[in-house]
# Entry
Amino acid sequence: MGAAHVTKRSVDELLAEARQGLERVGPEEAAAVQSAGGLLVDIRYAALRERDGTIPGALIVERNELEWRLDPQCDHRLPEATHHDLQVVVICNEGYASSFAAVSLRQLGLTWATDLTGGFQAWRAAGLPVR
# Structure
């Protein structure tokens, strides 16, 4: 089997490319999305949630399950994943992995998926509710 030609790019380049298509939101905007019926989706791993807390009302979906849980066409979707027009804000710890996750959700047809600039740490620093 021959090796395919692969363009070598840094993770910073990939991240910048991913973010070009996203309208990232700040903590207050994310709270407004949630108030309007959109979904906040926390993809942080358990140790970070246990250490720092969680956002009340946010769905907890570990990163390795995200696409299956939010794809409205998937048999393994969450009950909240009702249609492709959902407003979804993905939240990681500091706002890096969430950008890649939001792009993946957009590829599934969730056209309003985005992520929280600065992640959970920015939410907490803004003084927004944490459980």
Observations:
- Helices lie at 11-20, 27-35, 46-52, 66-70, 97-107, 119-125.
- The chain has one domain: 23-125.
